[in-house]
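S., here's the first fold you wanted:
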Amino acid sequence: MIPRRYQLKKDAVAIVERGHPWLFRTQMSTAAQVFGDGQWLRLVDGANRVIGHGIYESEGAIAIRILRRGADTPDAAWLAAQLAAAIEKRAELAKRTTGLRLVNGESDGLPAVVVDRFGDVAVVASYSAGSDAIARFVARALPDRHVLWRPARRRRGPALPARVLRGSPPNVASFVEDGVSFDVDLEAGHKTGAYLDLRGLRRAIAEAPLAGARVLNLFAYTGMLGRAAEAAGATEIVQVDQSARALAFAAEHHVGDPAKHRFMEADVFDAMPDGSFDLVIVDPPAMTSQVKHVPAVLAAYKKLYSMARQRVAPGGVLVAACCTSRIERDVFRETVKAALGPGFALERELPPEIDHAAAFREADYLKIGWWRASAR
């Protein structure tokens, strides 16, 4: 795509030069209104000096995603180098698992593009119309046997269907993580099909002393965390989700001994199973991308964790997770602390996995705390 010239305001120039990958709508001049969604831009300052290149978005808080800094135009060789560097950063991780994120958007210098590998299948997704071209280039450069591309969701009109760019990807892909096998619903799964960012939590659960334990897995999706609990020795695992399809997938693909699992189709905010559990996992979906909604979301989190604490047995653990990017770590921690009360103590927080490392503050979206109830 041929970039068009756009002169940035002084404060926007400073943001680009500091290295932040986004320019927000409030930092744009009215001249930007002529650009279409996905237009590539050559960004200049008041002296007509090229300071970088970016991708314009016509709606939403983010107006421009920075593609490359400096005067050089982002070309095929540059994109190939970005991809190679991202894959090299994950070389050690690839020795431990066949499920990993090869490209993590702006944090790997490829804005609005992610690549998740599940065994011999790579799923490439873009979440900005202007990044579709980058995603297609990346997809064709990957060495994987099967490559599936999910185009960016348009704000208007129907969603574009996924496209096969190489091979014949199956409806269900598989990968092995720390010796445990998992399956991925490529046909209708969330995002790329599975949440690879929860690898650290799956590992923590699989390594926990859960022999004979009762486990409650809320917002269970396809039951990967439940499978990890079974691998750790749990003998009763109750999994709750409002998606009948996700629970059916969990029952078919992530159950070793069916006698140990029970599935409940419900909205967690409306209903939770009764009883007392040694481990309660609370991993709700993202609730907003807008700052104005944060107070309401914090109230919802407080209600949720107040409900969940009542299901934790004395001495048990509650895992509190948050993937709402607009809520910062300290705020989430204090919200959970207030909801749980003095009977719980934070034992540890799980850091982001290496393939989901955040290169800037807004990318640090996933927060996971391991809270221990008093023995009473």
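And the second, which I think is the more interesting of the pair:
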Amino acid sequence: MEVEPSRVEVGQGVSVRAIVQDAETPVASLIYEWAADAGTFSGEGPSVTWRPPQDLETPADYQLRLTVREPYGAAGADGVRPEHRVTATSPPVRVHDSPAELRTLSLSFLEKFANSRLSAEECLVDFTDSCRGKQSEREDIEYNREHYEIRSSSLEFDRLTIEADGMSARMVVECEFRSRIRKCPEGAAGCVVGSTGRVRGDCLLTAVYEQGRWWLCSSNFHGENVPGIVPFFRPR
């Protein structure tokens, strides 16, 4: 059974073609019964299109099943002809709702970051080890935890760009963090431990597709200090 493509987005059709040989019955005369745990089929015979359901939780793997029936001989007393049956299962089809998954990844990470009780490792569970951005973000979080206690945050997902090859993406989240200074960075003029301030701007995140799922790759903050709080992330 041939499936193309093997990775799809919700609502995208998958072309499925059965490769069938029969020495006695023409392939077009066989009976083809397509099935899946969810979704719909269109078309008939050895080549059909399958569409995953719109409301499933993703990512998810689906396998498509085909039963080929070959009736033969005369019908029995019950009116049913005997038949040969062969059943095959497709390779897994990986189904995604990438915009929803990337939005969830972005906001989940930033919500963890905004909780000063969580360690860097707890915040970075959805970052891939294959990106250098993970180590940079770990250092940013450790710096932030040492110098600030985040008291509140506001996060609003703004926009998403997925590259044409479906292997990388960029997300922008409008961010605001209100924090109390725990420790003044070295050389920070005017810094007062215990004072509060806020920063606001854009949290810029990137993601890559690996091992059958989306992973975060990097996170950077572009914004302004209001009203002049010392650097919220480690100097670079």
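Why I say that: The first strand starts at residue 2 and ends at 4. The helical segments are 98-113, 120-123, 133-147.

Talk tomorrow,
H.
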